[in-house]
Amino acid sequence: MSSKKKNKNAYKQMKFRMGVFQIKNLENKKIFLQTSADLDRAYNGDKFQLNMGLHSNKELQHEWTKLGSDKFEFSVLDELKLEELTTELEAKKELKELYKLHQNELIETGISLY
């Protein structure tokens, strides 16, 4: 087996931290809620997109550009505890359920979402 193939297989076996995170606007308390299959990379990915003006959420992008990055806070709200036998499909379903749970909780408390 080639080293490239070994590296690819090793990567596939890696377990990443999955869960729900938020980017909170500290000025108006509005929250961008999202799930990620790799929480350790989530913030860097979104921050890079926001700094480059390429984020998919145009309202968040506009406010980030207007206010600056120091007016936003990134935090992990919930981490999915994966069992060894959890399939990718089950993990996606669990992430979706966690997202809905946090979304409903935030809306019930009167917090606006992007």
Features:
alpha+beta; 3 strands; GIY-YIG endonuclease; 4 helices; 20% strand; 3-stranded antiparallel sheet; 49% helix; 114 residues; single chain
Question: Would you write up a description of this structure?
Answer:
- The chain is α+β, with helices and mostly antiparallel strands and 114 residues long.
- The chain has one domain: GIY-YIG endonuclease (3-Layer(aba) Sandwich), CATH 3.40.1440.
- It has helices spanning 3-13, 39-52, 58-67, 88-108; strands at residues 18-25, 31-36, 72-80.
- A hairpin with a 5-residue loop joins strand 1 and strand 2.
- It is flat and about 50 Å long.
- The chain starts with a helix and ends in a 6-residue tail after the last helix.
- The model has no long low-confidence stretch (mean pLDDT 89).
**In the CATH classification, which architecture applies?**
3-Layer(aba) Sandwich
- Order of SSEs, N→C? HEEHHEH
What would you call the shape? flat
Number of strands: 3
| Strand fraction | 15-25%
Quaternary state of the chains: single chain
Count of folded domains: 1
Strand order of the main beta sheet, please? Answer: 2-1-3
Mean of residue pLDDT values: 89
Low-confidence stretches: none
* SS content category: alpha+beta
Kindly provide the name of the CATH class.
Alpha Beta
**CATH homology-level superfamily:** GIY-YIG endonuclease
Helix content: 40-55%
Rounded radius of gyration (Å): 17 Å
